[in-house]
UniProtKB/TrEMBL annotation:
The lineage of its organism: Bacteria, Pseudomonadati, Pseudomonadota, Alphaproteobacteria, Sphingomonadales. InterPro entries: TMEM86B-like. This is Lysoplasmalogenase. The chain crosses the membrane at residues 12-28, 83-100, 112-129, 135-156, 163-181, 193-213. Keywords: Membrane, Transmembrane, Transmembrane helix. It comes from Alteraurantiacibacter aquimixticola.
Amino acid sequence: MPRRALAEQRPYLLLSLTAALAFYYLRWTAMPEAYLIPVKGAGVALLALYAFMRHSSPDARLLTWALGAACLGDMALEFDHRIGGMLFFLFHVLAMGVFLRNRRPELKGLDSWVAGLTLILTPVIAWMLPTDREAAWEVGFYALALGGMAASAWASNFPRYRVGAGAMLFLASDLLIFAEMGPLQGHFLPQYMVWPTYYLGMFLITTGVIQTLRKRDPELRVVK
């Protein structure tokens, strides 16, 4: 990787990490919630900018749109969970598009089991977690897309230790949110773990996809 390209592009990831850490710690302070919303959104927004700047392939553009939806979802969740949920549903659909366009020719053994069980069990488990049965149906419907995203990421030809693992971290983060609506209500675990697992998952997905695309086609979009 050319030194100039590295020097120009790495700051987007660094700024994204800084924004994610800032949100995690500042939310425990007395800072007004209105000021925290853009800080929260900046973490994934900068990942979207990284994806846009690093590659101009259709897959990279589709990932950029997906990350844009997730960024808006992060902010929308702070004032309306349904709107935020719809935006994340859109993220999952768009991300699935990236993964399905790059699926492995064949899944064998344990990999096929992991993808299949992720697809089937995610909505079932998500539906079982909330104590409010009306909310459970909404959660279960959303989790159809969540499970599809994670399963297709695992079945894609992107590196599993990055993209596949990142999708599974995202899945775990959402399941913690759903568990907070039921067995983990009032428990400290979701409060401390949802954001780190979600953001780390998004970071791994983004860098894993983009760096793989660059290895396949090293062209670089340069903005002058």
